[in-house]
Amino acid sequence: MHEDELVALLREQLLGTERPVVRSGVERLWKTGRGAAGLALSVVGGRLRGKGEGLGAADVRAVSQLVSRLGELKGLAMKAGQVLGYIDPTLPPEIRGLLSVLQTASPASPFPQVEATIRAAFGSRADMLLAGLERQPVSVASIGQVHRARLPDGTEAAVKVRHPGIDEALQGDFRAAGTGSSFASVLLPGAASSIKGFIDEARTVLLEECDFSLERERQATFARLFAQDEVILVPAVEPEWCASSVLTTRWMPGQSFDAFLAANPSQEVRDRMGIALFSFYIGTLYRHGLFHGDPHPGNYAFREDGRVVVYDFGCVRSFDSATVLAFAALVDAVRADEAHGMREALVALGARPPGDAESLAMLRTLLRGFFAPLLEQGPRPVHPGSGFEAQQLLRDKRFLAKLSLPGRFLFLFRLRFGLYAVLARLGAVADWGAIESQWAEEARRPTSSRTSGASSASHAGNTSLSSKRT
Question: Does residue 328 sit within a domain?
Answer without folding.
Answer: yes
